[in-house]
């Protein structure tokens, strides 16, 4: 018998909350890995949200994970979509098909990040996802 704690998957939970939802008048597709063609160029339709993790902390009662969300879209739409996503997912007592989360809160606010494209912009923000063990 193991004493290991099992927590809900925060990346999957964010995917459940973001994928195929409408933000700033656009339907957003979420991805764990960016869709690219054989030359490495991003594939649409845009906007797309890229969700990945960057560590966190774990205590005896809960775990707080930092997840980064990047949105790729034409022009200022990237920041507008990400602002809407952050407002939509933030809160307490959030139930998703991937698990229950005590809290999702913005850690770093949405910001336009330099990206090497003539047609796309990239916006990035991070959230803190708090959850308790499943078992």
In words, what does this structure look like?
- By secondary structure, this protein is an alpha+beta fold.
- The protein is 16% helix and 47% strand.
- It has helices at residues 10-18, 77-89, and strands at residues 21-23, 26-31, 48-58, 63-73, 91-96, 99-113, 121-131.
- The chain has a seven-stranded mixed sheet.
- The longest helix has 13 residues, at 77-89.
- The chain is elongated and about 50 Å long.
- It starts with 9 loop residues before the first helix and ends with a strand.
Tally of separate helices: 2
Output the radius of gyration. Answer: 16 Å
What spatial form do the alpha-carbon principal axes imply? elongated
Strand order of the largest sheet: 1-2-3-4-7-6-5
SSE series:
HEEEEHEEE
Largest sheet: 7 strands, mixed
Roughly what is the average pLDDT, rounded to an integer? 93
Class from helix and strand fractions: alpha+beta
Beta-strand segment tally: 7
Strand content: over 45%
Q: Which residues sit in consecutive blocks of at least 5 with pLDDT less than 50?
A: none
Give the helix proportion (percent range): 10-25%
Query: Termini, distance in Å?
Result: 13 Å
Gist of the model:
With 135 residues, the protein is an alpha+beta fold. The chain has helices spanning 10-18, 77-89; strands at residues 21-23, 26-31, 48-58, 63-73, 91-96, 99-113, 121-131.
């Amino acid at each position: 018998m193991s004493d290991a704690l099992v927590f809900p998957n925060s990346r999957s939970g964010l995917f459940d909350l973001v994928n195929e939802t409408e933000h700033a008048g656009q339907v957003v597709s979420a991805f764990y890995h960016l869709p690219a063609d054989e030359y490495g160029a991003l594939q649409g339709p845009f906007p797309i949200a890229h969700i990945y993790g960057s560590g966190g902390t774990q205590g005896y009662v809960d775990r707080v994970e930092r997840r980064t969300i990047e949105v790729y879209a034409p022009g200022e739409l990237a920041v507008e979509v990400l602002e809407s996503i952050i407002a939509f997912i933030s809160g307490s007592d959030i139930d998703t098909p991937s698990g229950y989360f005590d809290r999702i809160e913005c850690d770093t606010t949405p910001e336009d990040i330099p990206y090497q494209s003539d047609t796309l912009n990239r916006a990035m923000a991070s959230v803190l996802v708090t959850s308790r063990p499943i078992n």
